[in-house]
Amino acid sequence: MKAIVITNFGSPEVFAQRDVNKPIPKQNQVLVKVYATSLNPADCGMRQGFFGPRVKLPAILGYDVSGVVEAIGENVQDFQVGDEVYYAIELMSGDGANAEYHVADESIVARKPRNINHLEAASVPIAGGTAWAALITRANIQVGETVLIHGGGGGVGTFAIQIAKAAGAYVYTTCGSYDAEFVKSLGADRVIDYRNENFIEIIQQETNGKGVDVTLTTVGGEILAQSLVVTKADGRVVTVTGVDGDLNAAIFKNITIHFVHLDHTRPKLDALRNLIERGQIKPVVGMTFPLNQVAEAHKKLESRGEDVRGKIVIEVV
After folding, report:
1. Cα–Cα distance between 264 and 24 in angstroms, integer?
2. CB 141, CB 214: distance < 8 Å
3. Residue 260: is it exposed, middle or buried by C-beta count within 10 angstroms (0-12/13-18/19+)?
4. Contact of 41 with 3, CB cutoff 8 Å
5. Angle at Cα 243 formed by Cα 156 and Cα 145, nearest 5°?
């Protein structure tokens, strides 16, 4: 089968197309014909070697999958040949979705939402699952609460806004002015231009100094530490990245800080499928590249340009 692999770590130029053996499903596994995958920051980190010897070379990257079950192994209970599925692959796996086929344990596989195509579905598993893990599993947001989402125009941010609204929250989000109308269309109640406005001053003023119940940051640096100022006493803060800065303010305000790593994805994807099929969440595909242009897709993700919105998707079929 055709696959895009890396044989060493480095810039996007390390990608090469190869013919590799088509995988065969073992017990409790399904063979999936991959229709689409999508890019996440982890893909770039893997390619650059940030995870070191835990990634065995040569490796096939790509950790989101949307496709169709082509064969099943023994004892598979939940899926049949022809089922449309989507799922997230373990990040340290060397067998990713930048290939025509992928084999997976059925325990991680979920049924694809019926009302979206494979390109849209491929944008969901990691970004949508992470947003769900952050806001629902960890922060446990409640109807009527206020939520601050940093990076509302990005992959996780676009899902987080919609999940928070579906849960009945009032949503503040930071983004560039070029994304303001876009994030409003996703349900953001108050948009703050991070380049020209001070989110601390705005939230302090609009909440009469009380702050928000929950803060979610999808960007690194000191943003999370700064956000403690506008998080209520006994509130919750969630990050999907590393952090810098002094977090001691959390102690005095009794704020709970959660560091989220996506795991146990299938229940999250089942929940997201329900919301997508009800029309409460719409995946955002910002750009699409063919499989043989994975390197260009990586360059675009790393450029962080104003035209990068939602997810970058790789069309395999």
Report:
1. 24
2. yes
3. buried
4. no
5. 55
Residues 65-106: tens digit of each pLDDT: 999 999 999 999 999 999 999 999 988 777 899 999 999 999
Tokens 């982890």 appear where? 42
Q: What's the first-to-final CA gap in the chain, in angstroms?
A: 12
Question: In this structure, what are the phi and psi dihedrals at residue 18, rounded to the nearest 5 degrees?
Answer: -140, 155
163-192 per-position pLDDT tens digit = 999 999 999 999 999 999 999 999 999 999
Beta-carbon count within 10 A of 71 CB = 17
**In the structure encoding, which two tokens stand for residue 209, read together?**
């100094």
What the block records as the tokens of 156 is 């996780």
Averaged over 19-23, what is the pLDDT?
A: 96
* Residue 91 CB partners (closer than 8 Å, separation 6+): 42, 46, 51, 63
pTM for the model stands at 0.95
Q: What is the pLDDT of residue 181?
A: 96
Confidence at 19, pLDDT banded by 50, 70, 90: very high
How confident is the model over 233-254, as pLDDT tens digits? 999 999 998 888 889 989 999 9
Q: How far is CA 27 from CA 72, 93, 106, 134, in A?
A: 8, 18, 10, 33
Secondary structure of residue 12 in the 3-state scheme: helix
Number of helices (H) and strands (E) in the chain: give both, helices first.
10, 15
Closest alpha carbon to 85 in 62, 99, 66: 66
CB atoms within 10 A of CB 249: 15
| SS3 category, 277 | helix
- Residue 218 token pair: 């999808």
SS3 state of residue 18: strand
- Give the separation between CA 71 and CA 84, rounded to whole angstroms: 12
Domains and CATH numbers, the chain: 2-124+283-315 (3.90.180.10), 127-259 (3.40.50.720)
